Amino acid sequence: PAGLVVSSLEVLAAGPERAAEIDVSLRNPGTSRVGLTEALVTIVDSAVIHVCQFASATDLSASYDIELPDDPPSGTVLRKALHQEIGADELDRFSLRFGLPALETRHPLDSYLYRVRISVAHDAGSPPAELGEFVVEAQTALSIDHYFPAPRPATLNDAEAGLCGDSVDCQHRIRSCWNDNRVRLARMLVDGPKLSESAAKAKTVLFD
Prior knowledge:
The protein is of the alpha+beta class. The chain contains 4 helices and 7 strands; from the N terminus they run βββββββαααα. A 4-stranded antiparallel β-sheet has the order 4-3-6-7. It has a 3-stranded antiparallel β-sheet with strand order 1-2-5, with no helix packed on it. A hairpin with a 6-residue loop joins strand 6 and strand 7. The chain is elongated.
């Protein structure tokens, strides 16, 4: 039997009271009804893009590092049962929503990126429908203003603009934070995964 055909895909970043989501439309070109049985989500990579906010030296006690104890190793496969069917020569649309375990230590503005490879298993006897690779922005959508000062590696001068005053230590920390964000994001974008509107904008501004 013929395999399912991907009709459309849309990546939606997380927002206020909204989980990160991948919207999927599949067409069944065959003559028999096909039941979707399982979504397989393989985690290829993950990274945290930090909001770079540090106080001057007198206030450094307020700064902290965010550790994600459930940070998955590459190759982790998540399985989600699906319970729907696609009729012969019909189109079906569904979404996969992605969230994070609740952790009080998360900074509310940090963006947790997961690069995932997704396929959909079914009962038609052909291989799973491969949807491709995506970058999912969990918790917070990427914003150029919060995570990167300019479309180039950051300098100490970038950190002087009202952020640190005369604190050289603060300037170095913010510069390092911005440049670490840039390296992490570049790693997640290698070979062109599918992106949300906000991630695509960040890619265009920073790297294109």
